[in-house]
Amino acid sequence: MAEQGILILTTGGTIDKNYFDALSEYQIVDSGIPALLKEARVALPYRLVEVMRKDSLELTDADRTLIAAAAREAPEMCIVITHCTDTMTETAKLLAAQVPDKTIVLTGALSPARFAETDANFNLGMAFATAQVAAPGVWIAMSGQVFDGLQVRKDREAGKFVAI
C-alpha cells in the first residue's frame, strides 16, 4: 500500500496538450493533472513533480534517463508517471532496468485531458489504483487495462495498447 503517498511525475504528451483555435497546433501546456486529482477528490497523499513538457516523439534517451533518476531518487515507493503514449514502452524498459525496487505505473491519454471526451481521467484513476496494489515493477495502465510494462505495445491502428 502507498503509506507515504504517491509520487506523480509529469512529462508532457497528449494528456497535457491543448489547442487555442482551429488554426493552431496542439501545444503542451501546464499540466491538467492537479485539476483532475482535485475533481476526483483524491484523499491519498501525493506529490506532483513536473519533469518535463515534451511531445511524444521528442523524448530522447537522455529524457528517459532523467525520468528514471527522478523516480529512483524519490522517497516514495509508488510512482505514477504521465507520459506520451508513442514512446511509453521505451521508457518502461529503461525504468525496469534502472528502478527495479519501486512500483511504477505509466499512463497517458489518446486525447487531451482538457477535452470533454477524453480517456485521461479514467487512465489516471487506473494508474493511481494500480500504484497502490501492484507489486514492484513497471506497469502501464491504459484503456481499462493494466499491462506488464515489458509485455505490451501500442497498436496504433486499433488505438489501444495490447499485450505481447
The biggest beta sheet reads: 6 strands, mixed
Mean pLDDT: 84
Class by helix and strand content? Answer: alpha/beta
Number of DSSP strands?
10
**Beta-sheet strand percentage?**
25-35%
Report strand order across the widest sheet: 4-1-5-6-7-8
C-alpha-based Rg, rounded = 15 Å
Distance between the termini: 28 Å
List low-confidence stretches: none
Report the order of strands and helices.
EEEHEHEHEHEEEE
Report the total helices: 4
Overall shape: it is: globular
Helix content bin? 25-40%
Structure characteristics:
single chain; 164 residues; alpha/beta; two-stranded antiparallel sheet; 4 helices; 27% helix
Question: Strands, helices and their partners?
Answer:
Blueprint: E1 6-12, E2 17-18, E3 27-28, H1 33-39, E4 46-54, H2 61-73, E5 78-82, H3 88-98, E6 103-107, H4 120-133, E7 137-142, E8 145-148, E9 152-155, E10 160-163
Parallel strand pairs: 1-4, 1-5, 5-6, 6-7
Antiparallel strand pairs: 2-3, 7-8, 9-10
Write a short abstract of this structure.
The chain has helices at 33-39, 61-73, 88-98, 120-133, and strands spanning 6-12, 17-18, 27-28, 46-54, 78-82, 103-107, 137-142, 145-148, 152-155, 160-163.
Walk me through this protein's architecture.
- With 164 residues, this protein is α/β, with parallel strands linked by helices.
- The chain is built from 4 helices and 10 strands, in the order βββαβαβαβαββββ.
- The strands form 3 sheets. It has a 6-stranded mixed sheet. The protein has a two-stranded antiparallel ribbon with strand order 2-3.
- A hairpin with a 4-residue loop joins strand 9 and strand 10.
- The longest helix has 14 residues, at 120-133.
